[in-house]
């Protein structure tokens, strides 16, 4: 049950009386949701599994990944199952709307790298971390990039279609040798590959390309030390996109799609393509919006260049030098299992320990395991001066001792994890009281007590209204 100045209407209360009584008897376990004022309900009372984290999924999520949620602590709702009290959301390509995010949601994870289908800025305002799974599908996408190089090197797709027509006409055996000259091509060994974006997929592509005998150039303005260590030693690191594509026989795009000024929308434009070889093969298995379609059509019309992508394109979709595939990059069982498993592990670590990793809007945050005789508090607040002081002052005023803590910020959001000594504070009400005081501090968005029954101990400041 989730209560916002609330519990239940009379009928709902009668139906839920037994679990409420059980909860009241367990006050010392610090697991009773608390509220006051008007009685309201959230979701279906009969369908709420008290004592478990409720997970809502959109799309078909790999059962291998979902199995990472232990059934004794997690209630996973798939398909059309009602999940109005969800504590976390898992999704793949579903375009998430704010109306689909209950007030009870603590976190959202996408089983994949991109989060364009999640309203990340709005979730940040609501104090909800959004996670992704970088690298989980990297091998799957990398293999399709290699496949794309081969498709762009020889007219394999045209040859397949030609043989189907010959078979239909009963001429396949007669023409199979005569017509092969129509579909000639080149080998990739000894050719130069430009890798634009050297993250998980880019670095794996660079390594495998080198193993195939290719010369490799790369460009990534945000190259980290960790990513650099994954690159082949022979890679020629360029200082600009134009320097990377100049003289390259193959160009693979592995950069993120970023909207707005100084973003990457249409970054592969006429200017960049003018530096590419006229017969270069451009591979786009990152995002369709990275390529200026008009410029790509002009490039394909002017020479023997090729474009291979698994994103739809309204302009070059039927061009003779373009191969447009379904969005197959991560469509392997292994990639779906890995992404779902990583998403589940990330959500569990956040719900159970307050740890943040692989978030696109919250700072990476990790505190060592909670010591004995402590309760873990987490606080999400706006990144404004004085907020941390107000939080620690609230604990001090109630004579609580902070054993260990960490405070991190990212942009307009800040996140705190604190382990509080329970010595002399064995009663649940003192914890609830200090939680309410901290939650209602100006700038605080939400708080959690990670202790006791799964799924409880969460509070939010909803425009001055205390939600628990």
Care to describe what's here?
The chain has 468 residues and is an alpha/beta fold. The protein contains 15 helices and 18 strands. Helix 5 crosses helix 8. The N and C termini lie close together (10 Å). Mean pLDDT is 88; it is low at 1-42.
Major sheet attributes: 7 strands, parallel
Strand content: 15-25%
Low-confidence stretches: 1-42
Number of helices: 15
Net shape: elongated
Mean of all residue-level pLDDT scores = 88
Strand order of the largest sheet: 8-7-6-9-10-11-12
Distance between the termini: 10 Å
Q: Radius of gyration from the CA trace? A: 27 Å
Computed structural class: alpha/beta
Helix content: 25-40%
What is the β-strand count? Answer: 18
Topology:
Layout: H1 10-15, H2 17-25, E1 53-57, H3 63-66, E2 74-77, E3 88-91, E4 107-110, H4 120-125, E5 130-131, H5 138-153, H6 156-169, H7 172-175, E6 192-196, H8 200-211, E7 215-219, H9 225-229, E8 236-237, H10 241-245, E9 250-253, H11 270-273, E10 281-284, H12 293-302, E11 306-309, E12 322-324, H13 333-353, E13 374-382, H14 387-397, E14 402-410, E15 413-421, H15 428-439, E16 444-450, E17 458-462, E18 465-467
Parallel strand pairs: 1-2, 1-3, 3-4, 4-5, 6-7, 6-9, 7-8, 9-10, 10-11, 11-12
Antiparallel strand pairs: 13-15, 13-16, 14-15, 16-17, 17-18
Helix pairs in contact: 5-8
Quick overview:
With about 475 residues, the protein is an alpha/beta fold. It has helices at about 10-15, 15-25, 65, 120-125, 140-155, 155-170, 170-175, 200-210, 225-230, 240-245, 270-275, 295-300, 335-355, 385-395, 430-440; strands at about 55, 75, 90, 105-110, 130, 190-195, 215-220, 235, 250-255, 280-285, 305-310, 320-325, 375-380, 400-410, 415-420, 445-450, 460, 465.
